UniProtKB/TrEMBL annotation:
<protein>
    <recommendedName>
        <fullName>Protein Wnt</fullName>
    </recommendedName>
</protein>
<dbReference type="GO" id="GO:0005102">
    <property type="term" value="F:signaling receptor binding"/>
</dbReference>
<dbReference type="Pfam" id="PF00110">
    <property type="entry name" value="wnt"/>
</dbReference>
<keyword id="KW-0449">Lipoprotein</keyword>
<keyword id="KW-0879">Wnt signaling pathway</keyword>
<keyword id="KW-0217">Developmental protein</keyword>
<comment type="similarity">
    <text>Belongs to the Wnt family.</text>
</comment>
<dbReference type="InterPro" id="IPR005817">
    <property type="entry name" value="Wnt"/>
</dbReference>
<comment type="function">
    <text>Ligand for members of the frizzled family of seven transmembrane receptors.</text>
</comment>
<dbReference type="GO" id="GO:0016055">
    <property type="term" value="P:Wnt signaling pathway"/>
</dbReference>
<keyword id="KW-1015">Disulfide bond</keyword>
<dbReference type="GO" id="GO:0005576">
    <property type="term" value="C:extracellular region"/>
</dbReference>
<keyword id="KW-0964">Secreted</keyword>
<keyword id="KW-0272">Extracellular matrix</keyword>
Length: 162
């Protein structure tokens, strides 16, 4: 059985835990869910214009009305609802850039691993599995706005994956 308290690490980096260096199925799940989480959060941050390096840049403020600028500024601090978040996507032309999230996650999580032994190969596999689940669970959404329908792509919610 998996004892979650075995992951408790006060003032330590969780990935240095001896638990995560063993070949348990729970370890595999931990790596996969971490990879899916990084992918999801980076894609979301990109869509909100919080990452300058991602392909979907935030709109130029000169093209927005005063109320749109105010809504955009509020969204940069964090949308209070999904509908508000989607309204910002409409103004910015952004949907979750899952490909940017996948690329970042690969570089961030896999860069230190080399497939020189079984455990390293397994960690790389589990990272890829998490990214694959996040990518395949992304879903099309449609929300009826006041004057127009908004269509786009959003990545999955981690609670659905777990």
């Amino acid at each position: 059985r998996w004892n979650c308290s075995s992951l408790e690490t006060k003032n330590k980096i969780p990935h240095t835990s001896s638990f995560l260096r063993t070949g348990y199925k729970e370890t595999a799940f931990s790596y996969a869910i971490a990879s899916a989480g990084v992918t999801h959060q980076v894609a979301l941050a990109c869509s909100l214009g919080k990452i300058d390096a991602c392909p979907c840049q935030r709109p130029k403020k000169s093209h927005l009305t005063a109320s749109e600028r105010r809504k955009y500024a509020e969204a940069r601090r964090g949308p209070s609802s999904m509908e508000e978040s989607l309204e910002i996507f409409h103004h910015s032309g952004c949907s979750h850039d899952i490909n940017f999230g996948l690329q970042f996650s690969t570089q961030f999580l896999d860069s230190r691993e080399t497939a020189h032994d079984f455990m390293a190969t397994a960690r790389l596999h589990n990272n890829r599995a998490g990214r694959l689940v996040e990518h395949s669970e992304g879903q099309l959404f449609e929300v009826g706005a006041r004057e127009a329908k908004l269509r786009g792509r959003r990545s999955s919610v981690l609670r659905d994956i777990a």
